[in-house]
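Q: I'm writing a short methods note and want an example of a predicted protein-small molecule complex. Could you take the sequence and the SMILES for S-adenosylmethionine and return the bound structure as tokens? Please keep the output block clean; save any remarks for afterwards.
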Amino acid sequence: MANDTNLEINLHPTQDELSRQAFIVKFKQKVNLDLQRDIRTCVAKNIAPQLESDLGEPLDDLNRDHRKALKQRMSDEHLFKTWESLTWIGQDMMWNVVDETLDHDMPRLDAAAAEVLKREQKLGSLTLDPNLDLPPNIAKVEIHRQPGGFCLDRDGVDYDLLSGARMTGGGMVYGAGKGRTAKPGYSAAHFLISEAEKQFGKLKPKRILDMGCGTGSNTATFARIFPDAEVCGIDVAAGLLRWGHARCESEGVPIHFKQMSTAKMDFEDESFDLVASTIWGHETTPQILRDSIAEIWRVLAPGGISFHMDVTNQPGYQDLVDQVLNDWQIRHNGEPFWMGWADADLPALMTAAGYPEDCQFTGYRKRTQGAGDWFVHGAKKPV
Ligand SMILES: C[S@@+](CC[C@H](N)C(=O)[O-])C[C@H]1O[C@@H](n2cnc3c(N)ncnc32)[C@H](O)[C@@H]1O
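A: Understood, no commentary inside the block.
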């Protein structure tokens, strides 16, 4: 951590903004937890029995026509309309409070990054590729309705950190608003490593790749857990990588950030012994996911482990009510690729890319912090 807090690459909300953030977290929890519970009760008591009687068969979580029919009935329900409006408003309030902080904190953050980047001895590196064909599913979509999206790059700004700053600010509210509280300092990367070690024993990677690393918060955790490893983080969004680079340099964490797509990586064959990702796959298109699964196998060294964790929105896992709620998020909360992810057949994709079947794994793992599960997939490459 930077000793001088003015040099810290993290948001400095005022007391007023912190109290507004706390209000928005409570507001979102009310909507995400209480209101959704009431919707489930209403479906179970009223809507589902009537629909099953009209259809003449029980509702089946894997039947898309049933999902459509339930969605139709739920859409007419006052409670669902209220949930839709409040979900939208909660997300608006979240981005508004983030930008309130950035309105006064961005000049300090820009100055802090400039100061850190002036250092002659860099620990890691940042390699941007101005010629990269940005995938439209990320570049043209405001994921989670983040203003300007992840790939925002303002004309005339040399080292544009804004998208990284916004993603970081949203992160202060979004997960907590879903009722996901983790102890301070605990990240998805801790979970990933502990699950991978449960499965494969103690890991000693020499070279780690974090795919779709965003602002690099989990990448930094990998580097802290394995201080002797060389750690690379890749993403398509330059502003997220700039933020990650400045932050990791300021905190003394050596990471090599590179702008590239997971679907076509510039790394040598078999050059990483741990290839990881946290909540990346659900933002890909089916084609990008297919190509990336093949690329992971190409860059994974013999004996290496590929381990990925993501959201659990598969129809075989979620009931119809959650599928309808997700469908709304896909249409109205900047998550257009969730359903492609939900329907992805990871074992088939891995097999098609040449992974032997007995090396692969997929499944659900209980979160050790907060409620619910993660969906995990990956493989260990034979020596
Ligand atoms: C939800 S964010 C997660 C970021 C980070 N892994 C974390 O856990 O905080 C997903 C990230 O994947 C990146 N991404 C999506 N598709 C990608 C692709 N084809 N190549 C590289 N990065 C990609 C996005 O830009 C975004 O930063």
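A: Remarks, as requested: The CA atoms of residues 56 and 78 lie 25 Å apart. Strands lie at 125-127, 207-211, 230-235, 256-259, 272-278, 300-310, 360-366, 373-380.
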